[in-house]
Write a structure and sequence with these properties.
The protein has one domain: Jelly Rolls, CATH 2.60.120.380. The protein has no helices and ten strands. Strands 1, 2, 5, 8 and 10 form a five-stranded antiparallel β-sheet that branches. Strands 3, 4, 6, 7 and 9 form a five-stranded antiparallel β-sheet that branches. It is mainly beta. The model has no long low-confidence stretch (mean pLDDT about 90). It is about 0% helix and about 50% strand.
C-alpha cells in the first residue's frame, strides 16, 4: 500500500484562519477545525512555534461519524488516563509526536495560560 504525509496548519474554528503567528490571550481557549484522520496509520505530529513569553496547554479530542461538534470525546486509556493531553505548560517551541487513537475525526484545543503568539502545523502519515 502507498502512503503519504499530510501536513497543514491548524485552522481556528471560530475565525476560519490558520493558526499561524496568532496572538492568543490568557484564558481564551482556541479549538481547531476538525481534521479527517480516517486514513491516518497512527503516526502524527504537531509542530508548535511559540513567541513572546508563552505558556500553552495542548490537547485533542476525537469524533466518529459526522463531526457535528456535539459528539467530541476526550480519549482515555484502559487505566483511565487522559491520553488526549499532548502538552501542559509548554513554554518553548516543540515538535510533538503522538499516536492518536483510532478515530475518523480529530480536533485540537490550544489553551494559553499566558498571552502567547502561536503557530501550529499538524501532520500525519496516511495510507492511500
Amino acid at each position: 500500500m502507498a502512503s503519504q504525509i499530510r501536513i497543514a496548519p491548524l485552522v481556528d474554528a471560530a475565525t476560519s484562519t490558520n493558526i499561524t503567528a496568532q496572538a492568543m490571550i490568557n484564558g481564551t481557549a482556541v479549538y481547531s477545525t476538525q481534521i479527517n484522520a480516517a486514513r491516518s496509520d497512527g503516526y502524527a505530529f504537531l509542530d508548535v512555534t511559540l513567541a513572546d513569553t508563552p505558556d500553552v496547554d495542548i490537547s485533542y479530542q476525537v469524533s466518529y461519524g459526522n463531526p457535528d461538534l456535539t459528539g467530541w470525546k476526550t480519549p482515555y486509556d484502559t487505566d483511565g488516563n487522559n491520553v488526549g493531553t499532548l502538552a501542559t505548560t509548554l513554554i518553548a517551541s516543540r515538535l510533538i509526536v503522538f499516536e492518536p487513537v483510532a478515530c475518523e475525526w480529530i480536533r485540537f484545543l490550544i489553551d494559553p495560560d499566558a498571552n502567547s503568539t502561536v503557530s501550529v502545523v499538524y501532520g500525519h502519515k496516511e495510507t492511500l
